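Recap from last week: sequence in, structure out.
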Amino acid sequence: MPTAWTGHAGCCDKAAPGPPRMRLVSLCLPVLLGLTLARPAAAVHRCGDDVDGHAAACGCGDLLVSSRTLGPADGVTRERCGGDGLIVAAPGPVTLAFGGRTIRGDGQGNGILVLSGSLALSGPGTVDGFATGLVASGGTRLRSAIGMRFAHNRLDGVSVSGDGFTFEGSLAEANGRDGFALRGREYALDGNRATSNGRYGFDLAGSGAHVGAGAGNEADANRMDGFVVNGMMLEIVGATASRNGSDGFYASVMHALIRSIRAEGNQGDGIRIAGMSVAIAGNTATGNRGVGIWVSAMGVDDQGGNRGSDNAGLAGHTDVRPVMFERAPALAQCRIGMAGTCR
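Predicted structure tokens:
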């Protein structure tokens, strides 16, 4: 006697007992019709100034395989993208120059997603309205981003991890989460600004990074902290944090130099530093609702010039100030260790 199938049968597998032939045909006919009417998927379109020896314009969701200067022929600058803007899939280094143009999304996908190769972004240009503006993860997939604007993206303006990349003169504005979310080794930031983002202006982690030293970086009016820094062997110079919804500048670091940070009018502490082996110099905190400068690291090298004024103290969000800060206001302005004031 034949053995009946048990469990779930596929549409065109042997049917369960019943009117055999009619049941089989009735179950399989919709799938067979679907297979007959289905069309093959469209081929992935490659774009760039050199695609098999020819220039090819870029549309939404295309693969960038060689360098490209965006212009009127590129559909990606004329229409709102329903998914990814451009996907970088190059065999080596490529440059994407915006020439003042904008790539726009509808809240989905990534404005620029780097899968392979090594990308340099050249502005002025804008990536606006995606889930995340720029995504590059690992190695040297991003080399640099200069003169770019990442705005109104639903999550982060920029989400990058890797080695040796550079951000210069770029803006992350009104993104839903972080302006710049960066991880890696020996990267550099200077002259960048993060404003009105939904969480942090700059969320930085890694080792050997150089943040500032030239024009410096600025975080203004972000919903939470202006700067959040984690890592070791870091140099952070010339940052400005103002009007942020929580701390202006927060760092948990080892073997770091933190110099010439300015924190003004933040709703939490102005400058808060934890960790070990930290050198601080020339930092100022003014008019913050929490403590001005508070360093609770081991092995602090106070190189002088750190000052706080008009900061409210630990209970800055209330109208009543603790007695300890009325009697020892210097602790609320600039504090090193458990009780030491700054010099």
